[in-house]
Amino acid sequence: MKNIIFCFLFLSIFIYSSTHASDKWTITNTVLEISSQTLRFIDFKQTLQIAENPDKYSERNPLLGEHPSKEKVYLYFISGAIGHFMISYFLPEPYRTAFQASNIVLTLPVIAGNFQIGLGVRF
């Protein structure tokens, strides 16, 4: 059920439309945002495994703490996903593309490190 809620919120941010964006949203922005949000979802699923196995894993993100609750993980990632989209949407170019791309570059090593310690992605 929580996965359905997360997916619904994830998809609903793309439905949101407004005339207040600084620059026109491009196909490149869409690809970058979907890529960023997909990586965020993978990190979310891995972090849930950390929360479910505090005896086996510890979280490195200081905002979540060493052994976060599942509720804290959900709140962090849902608010982060919405916040990332909103910031991306309202940033002017070229800052928007740089913001989206930097998020991808920063998230990839985190996910890779999680895979190296045995965290996969379960659906």
UniProtKB/TrEMBL annotation:
Keywords: Membrane, Transmembrane, Transmembrane helix. The chain crosses the membrane at residues 73-91, 103-121. The keyword Transmembrane helix applies. This is Uncharacterized protein. It comes from viral metagenome.
